[in-house]
Amino acid sequence: MPRMRAKPASHSASLGLSQAEESLRILVGTEGDSFPLMEINAGEMMEDREKVFFGVRADSRIFDLYRTLLMEPEGPAARVQPARPAPIPATTRIRIVNFVLNSKTAAGDTLEDLVKDGVFETRFALHKGEDDLKKKWAQWRNMVNKQPIDDIRDYFGEKVALYFAWLGWYTYMLVPAAVAGLVIFLSGFSLFNASQISKEICEADDILLCPRGDHGRKYQRLSDTCVFAKLTHLFDNEGTVLFAIFMALWATVFLEIWKRQRARVVLHWDLYGWDEDQEEMALELINCPDYKLRPHQHSYLRSTAILTLCLLMICLMIGMAHVLVVYRVLAAALFNSALLFQEEQVTTAVVVTGALVHYVAILIMTKVNKRVALKLCDFEKPRTFSERESKFTVKFFTLQFFAHFSSLVYIAFILGRINGHPGKSVRLAGLWRLEECHLSGCMMDLFLQMAIIMGLKQTLSNCMEYLGPWLAHKCRLIRVKLGHASEDPELRDWRRNYLLNPVNTFSLFDEFMEMMIQYGFTTIFVAAFPLAPLLALFSNLVEIRLDAIKMVRLQRRLVPRKAKDIGTWLQVLETIGVLAVIANGMVIAFTSEFIPRMVYKYHYGPCRKGADPAVDCLTGYINHSLSVFHTKDFQDPIRIEGSENVTECRYRDYRNAQDYNLSEQFWVLLAIRLVFLILFEHVALCIKLIAAWFVPDVPQSVKNKVLEDKYRTLREKICSSRKSTDV
């Protein structure tokens, strides 16, 4: 498979040629090598006015050796040699040549060293034979069509094909989750005007809420929050618990069935027994017969240092969440003093702008986290590239998880709970009051934060992911059209590949990471945002074709990599599934109004002694859930507008009206919340374990096929042994 090298031809043609010949000798190796690494045909060097291109093709003996080492691992007596061996796939050729070019030569140089020295500009594999993929796959009109996974594997290799197979299955499984979330959300509309709690809030013209924060200088009627109360009921209703349990079951079934799908695909590709370590050792031996095996090593001192640095980075991520808290507090004071918003709009404006700031912080910290994770991996000194990739995945995802979700954790479980009470508020630096939850509850804050961040990631990220490479490619083409156009069709093809956007080691990794974060948003805190699966479904339908168009039309060809699973990402998905159970249980227990409503309904409300058809069991809940504050206890009541005619106001908490200490109802609720959390998590985790046991990872048909192959191999060995004994 040809490879191209591009070098600026700013020097004279003869100088460029002499540098190229010296470089080719480095790549070919010395005459004493056991295996010639490269053979260069004279016709595979071309030049135009700007660049000199070199085509590199591997010697056929390299592939014969590769076939001997890996394609028949059972030994020469295992099976009969075919009269005409099957041709080596193009993906294997590219992979082997790329491995050789990445290795050090006898002179101690690598291709990267030559690039740094200015001998070469870049290297890339040719796009050849991609027309079928362009027609069947890399088009927007094929958005709902089945993906040609086998064709993707034949062109890009197993690693890319497994990514798209997983992404396609994930998108398919999002359909029931999206439908269930939409049903839960729409069921709130059926109770939009029928909810007893919404009725009481909308009719509470005589209940005044205490001023909230420093921006609230007047009392507000509870009935003014009528619209927000109805909107909150769309996603904070009795169906939320069932939906959270359903999503825990869905995450388990999704992963278990994916394992079965993977087993079928890998068996179909004849990679079920493939070993990655054996593959890498074979490539090392092909490149250098004197290769010395690098044993596994472990250093407790190095691991302790890496763990310490990771914890410091996690603390930095948590610190970023605190910076956002400070921003929201200061933004509330600024918006109020600058009169940019009306007083009742300040909280909403702070939530929205806070989510935007959080999104920008995520973009910045993503670049920082990647560099830190790479440095930690280099310090850890992994043995092989696959081991390095696995360790990098764990570190980078951990840092990214805290960067994306630390702010949501604050909103879900801390916001509005450490503020004190009217008349005695907790202040930041003794000056600014900490922000409160939305008037309709903290679930509205969490819903808005999730909707804004997830919406921005799905829209802006996808737009930038496509428009960036598209514009860069168009600019390159425009510059070439203004310059000299080559008449040689082969040179034009090489130049066309050169003008595509470059790819690197992280090209596929970044796609996986994007999907893992999206999966986290789809499952973690989904109880507060039941529309997350629906947004993810629409986003993935676009993402599949967007990635296909990028890889086939806008980017240089990815170097194929062999794989039989998605690697460490599977453990990441399983970890997210467990975290989702814990997070959703805590959201229902501590953030939503589900537990207080149920406790009031059966312990404090009119139905505590038995249901009465004429009375709604939640009648009086609003009055019960709001504490009383006497306005005379305000430190500066004169500043509050209308305070001369108000003797008491209400606020969301469970405190005594006399001393403002936490009331008995608060402790009862706290105990029930903890009991519910423990029960919910145990039930959900038990359901996950039962589902994982009930659905085998590997289908019986795959197990039987592998068993038959082993049996046939043993029979062939026995027959071969008997024949040799008879002779």
TrEMBL record:
Signal peptide segment: none
Domain Anoctamin dimerisation intervals: 89-149
Keyword Transmembrane helix: yes
Transmembrane segments: 160-186, 240-258, 304-326, 346-365, 396-418, 516-546, 566-590
Pfam short name (any one): Anoctamin
Locations listed in the record: Cell membrane; Membrane
Bilayer topology: Multi-pass membrane protein
Family stated for the protein in its record: Belongs to the anoctamin family.
Annotated Anoctamin transmembrane domain residues: 152-706
Name by which UniProt lists this protein: Anoctamin
A molecular function (GO) term: protein dimerization activity
Keyword set includes DNA-binding: no
Record's keyword terms, sorted: Cell membrane, Glycoprotein, Membrane, Transmembrane, Transmembrane helix
Cellular component terms (Gene Ontology): plasma membrane
Recorded name of the encoding gene: ANO9
Predominant subcellular localization, coarse grouping: membrane
